[in-house]
Structure formats: structure tokens, C-alpha cells
Specification:
Low-confidence stretches: 18-22, 222-226
Largest sheet: 2 strands, antiparallel
Number of helices: 7
Number of domains: 1
Number of strands: 4
Strand content: 5-15%
Order of helices and strands: HHHEEHHHHEE
Helix content: 40-55%
Strand order of the largest sheet: 1-2
Radius of gyration: 39 Å
Structural class: mainly alpha
Length: 226
């Protein structure tokens, strides 16, 4: 009896793995067996894990370019006055410092005209040099953008807010020549407008006047955040 029980137990143990394998491989009732999914994960290159570099705008460099252009404006006034035989001095008009040419505009209106025109002419000339100068690939630096912005902003100022002031360059040019303020607006404003168009068409100055700002919508102006 014990011998028979031993034989039966051995037969059951021998058949158990086969039975289990048969149950694992058995198809689902009512449909074919689904094949086993195989997923292969390829390792990511270290470059794709590196964070995207963010180019931060440097306001000090932009301000330095802006002030440099203004300094060139005033320097041109001084050098022109000296070249025309004037005696340059610093005066004040409504509390605002003003460079006085020392030229007798009644006797020498043409000299006074050149003195008044020297400032904006120099800034626009610098802008033209920057725009025409061969550049390498990439975007322009903040200093360069500051210089360009200053030249354009000066023209806009003199033909809007500073148009009718007695010491305004536009007023003095109009008084000491046959050109009206509208003529001067067309000349200087047209050059500045051309510079703006040229910057808009150059990839180097992309987003100069408007660019997308992360988490802040749209930024407009000379990269001035809203």
C-alpha cells in the first residue's frame, strides 16, 4: 500500500511542471493568445540631458552703448563749434544743461546750422557704420544694440518732444537755414526709419523691437520687459 502511494505521489510531482506550463501557454477563451510585448530602451546621449543655455540680457552693456552714442552726439557739437571758430561754453535752459557754440548766428547762420546738425548726423553715421560693417554669425551684442537704439531714440526725441524748444537742434537748424522743420523731419527721420527697416530685415537683430518672453507673453520695444 505504501509502495503504491509513493508511485502515485511521484507521478503527480512529475506532471505538475508540465501542467503549469500548459496553463501559462493556454490561450484566452474566445480569442487568440496575445504576443508578449518587447520594449527596448536606448540610452540617451548626455547632450540631450544637458539644460538649454539661457542668454541673459546685459543691461549695463546696453546702457554703456546708449550713453556712448549720446557722448558722440555732444562731442560732435563741441568739435564742430571749435572748427567753426566758436567758443564753446556750458549753459542752462530751464535747468537743463546746454552746450553753447559761441557762434554769432546772425553773422554766421551756416556755421550755427552745422553746429546744430552735427550731433544727430554723427549718431546716424555711427549707426550706418555698424549696420554696414561685416559681422559674423550670431546675434548682436547688447553694447551694439544700445548704440543703435540711442541714435534712433535721439532722432525721435528731437522731432517730437524736443521739436519746438528754443535750444532744440531742430529749431536751430530750421532758423539758420531755408529748411523747415518738416524738411528736417523728412531728412533725419527718413534715415532713422531706414535704419529700423534694415534692422528688422537682418537676422542678426532678431527680436530687437519685439520678442517672445517666457512666462510674460510678448516683450516689445528695445528688449524692454513689460
Amino acid at each position: 500500500m505504501a509502495h503504491r502511494l509513493a508511485l502515485i505521489l511521484g507521478a503527480v510531482l512529475a506532471a505538475a511542471p508540465t501542467s503549469l506550463r500548459a496553463q501559462q501557454a493556454a490561450p484566452i477563451i474566445g480569442g487568440p493568445a496575445a504576443p508578449a510585448a518587447s520594449v527596448t530602451l536606448s540610452p540617451c546621449h548626455p547632450a540631450c540631458l544637458a539644460p538649454t543655455p539661457v542668454r541673459h540680457f546685459s543691461w549695463p552693456k546696453f546702457a554703456a552703448g546708449f550713453v556712448t552714442s549720446l557722448a558722440a552726439h555732444e562731442t560732435a557739437h563741441i568739435l564742430t563749434a571749435v572748427a567753426m571758430g566758436g567758443h564753446v561754453s556750458l549753459g542752462f535752459n530751464s535747468g537743463r544743461p546746454v552746450i553753447q557754440s559761441g557762434i554769432d548766428s546772425v553773422r554766421h547762420p551756416t556755421r550755427q546750422f552745422f553746429f546744430s546738425a552735427a550731433g544727430m548726423s554723427t549718431q546716424l553715421l555711427i549707426n550706418e557704420v555698424i549696420l554696414d560693417w561685416p559681422h559674423g554669425p550670431g546675434v548682436s551684442g547688447e553694447f551694439e544694440r544700445g548704440v543703435l537704439a540711442s541714435g534712433i531714440a535721439t532722432v525721435v526725441f528731437y522731432f517730437t518732444v524736443g521739436r519746438d524748444s528754443q535750444v532744440s537742434d531742430v529749431q536751430q537748424m530750421s532758423v539758420n537755414s531755408s529748411l523747415s522743420k518738416w524738411d528736417l523731419t523728412a531728412i533725419f527721420g527718413g534715415i532713422a526709419a531706414t535704419d529700423v527697416v534694415r534692422m528688422l530685415l537682418k537676422p542678426r537683430y532678431a527680436h530687437f523691437f519685439a520678442y517672445p518672453a517666457p512666462k510674460h507673453g510678448l516683450t516689445v520695444g528695445m528688449r524692454l520687459p513689460l
